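Q: Got a minute? One more chain.
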Amino acid sequence: MLKFLKTIGLALSILIGLFFLIQLIPASSIEISSKTKEPEREKEVTKKNKSTEKNILLLGRPGKNYSGGNLTDTIILVHLEPTKEKVILISLPRDLLVKIPKQKGLTKINSLYNLVGIEGLKEKIEEITDLSIDHYIIIDLAMVKEIIELVDGVNVYVPQDIDDPYFPGPNYTYQSFILKAGWRYLDGQTALKYIRTRYTSPNGDFDRMARQQQIIHLLKQKVLTLNPLWNFPTCLKIFNTFKNHIKTDLGLIEMKELYQTTKETKTDKITHLVIDKKRTDLLIGGQVILGQQTASVVYPKTGQGNYSEIREYIRKVIKAVPQM
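A: Always. Here it is, folded:
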């Protein structure tokens, strides 16, 4: 039983580490044309040798009792080639404007899971990336708060003052989040705010990404130093927290295989590919009306629903990444 719990904990720790390695870049406003026509899909999703490649969809949502609890603001497709020791993280922006599968109308991609479920979201991401999805993992950010509380907090070096007057509050309100620079011992609630705040950071989501990596690294260290015998009650609570806040179609054997694939992978050997406006120049954006509200969105430069350049870019990056 203890060995079982430790194996699950290790596997899920690696998955969470991958999940928090990268965050998405928010859209900014440019003119948008509502008259662009969605083209026919150019070809079927690329078929591949299942024994040599895996694509795992990682989704992050606020979770139950949080505003927008089912909005998947983090969408990352992890491309694995175990025989070549390749790990590529492909991030899609939450504000990407997409057609709702099997329905009329458009929406942001982060709303698709709530509207059409996991299968509808997988279908759209396969259309965008031209990569078939083998498995999915949905993680509630609330899990981070609970696990940090179970290990009695984390000691964090905060590199710069944080003063965010627009941190999301209950019922779509805002609240202030202030944290001074220096060494700080964070409880679960404060740590959750620390990894979610973004509006007043000099580098926006890049800073948030760094904070997430920092917290997950510290949390992983604390969890893996627990003694399965002497800390059995805590280990059991952590396992139950994982179970309650992670939804996946991965089985136990597949989790262990994934752990074996990624355990030796160093952070600097993971390729980060963010489909955005700034670095890849594949998207443009602006303001549209969604649900009687004005929303900031992005969409392909080649036209709404035309993902040909995005697919080609992903293919080139995957091919160009060298074996480790």
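A: The chain has a mean pLDDT of 77.
Q: Perfect, thanks.
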